[in-house]
Write a structure and sequence with these properties.
CATH architecture: 3-Layer(aba) Sandwich
Number of domains: 1
CATH topology: Rossmann fold
Strand content: 15-25%
CATH superfamily: Alpha/Beta hydrolase fold, catalytic domain
Radius of gyration: 18 Å
Oligomer: single chain
Length: 283
């Protein structure tokens, strides 16, 4: 794989597994989707590695990162604290942050909390948690699908949840997901199979704890941000549909929104387009 891995001491006595690539002078911090493997960003990183140093990390309790001693510490602010530890470890003083899916609310909170440390923000198939009533209403139309599914899944018996980890992952699985409409057909089968295997290898109960931790966190809406903000949304995204992305972009002064052909998995489907959008964002 293109990425090398390093352990970082995060907040609350956690050990965070970070991954990096590239040797450019400018830095990029990727805030990934919960449970997503780093390989989701390999083509994006190959495109930008000559110009940038790209860094990401695995969230608490996933892949090589440890769980916190207090397992309730899975909120947005906890992930922001880990992100700052990763930035300090890699000596990134003014990175561009890229938040995908569940990583987007963390990216917005990071930019609002540390305006002097963030150069620009690119949100990919993700939005900040809304603070106004209209934003919350639109957000609920999408968020209920995710949080409701998480609550139902947590009621399932552990033996049934453990079967998720044992589900077969092969080209047939990848092809089924692409035909279902959840993903586009543009993703290479070998890459998609590796990504699915990464998701399924996670403890489903802990994954649901991460989702619940973000859901109970306060709004990540912050009004004007001191850095440029660009948002990318997939036209066929069923998790962050176009009305939600548009409504979120309208709440952020100066933010721009691009609708792309594709689903929720734009880093896999359109890695070069995402990379070009980042280049344009920082001029």
């Amino acid at each position: 794989m293109i990425f090398s891995e390093q352990d970082v001491f995060g907040a609350g006595e956690t050990v965070i597994s970070s991954w990096s690539a590239g040797a450019g002078s400018a830095g990029i911090l990727i805030l990934n989707d919960f449970g997503a493997p780093a390989v989701c960003w390999q083509d994006f990183a190959k495109n930008l590695a000559p110009e940038f140093r790209i860094v990401g990390f695995h969230y608490r309790g996933t892949y090589g990162s440890s769980r916190p001693l207090n397992e309730s510490q899975t909120g947005v602010d906890d992930h922001v604290a880990d992100a700052m530890a990763v930035l300090d470890h890699h000596r990134m003083s003014s990175p561009i942050i890229v938040g995908w899916s569940t990583g987007a609310p963390i990216a917005f909170r990071l930019a609002a909390s540390y305006p002097d440390r963030i150069r620009a923000l690119l949100a990919v198939a993700g939005v900040p948690r809304a603070s106004d009533s209209a934003g919350r209403l639109v957000e609920l139309l999408s968020g209920t699908l995710i949080s409701g599914a998480a609550k139902v899944a947590r009621l399932l018996p552990n033996p049934l949840l453990s079967l998720i980890n044992k589900a077969p992952v092969d080209s047939a699985t990848a092809n089924f997901l692409q035909r279902s409409g959840l993903l586009s057909a543009d993703i290479e089968t070998e890459l998609l199979t590796e990504v699915i295997a990464g998701y399924l290898a996670q403890d489903p109960n802990w994954y649901l704890r991460l989702v619940a931790g973000e859901a109970r966190s306060k709004s990540s809406d912050s009004g004007p941000l001191s850095c440029p903000v660009r948002m990318l949304a997939g036209r066929s995204d069923i998790l962050i549909p176009a009305p939600l992305a548009l409504q979120a972009a309208q709440r952020i002064p100066g933010a721009t929104l691009d609708m792309l052909p594709g689903s929720h998995f734009l880093p896999l489907e359109q890695p070069n387009v995402v990379a070009d959008a980042l280049r344009e964002l920082v001029g």
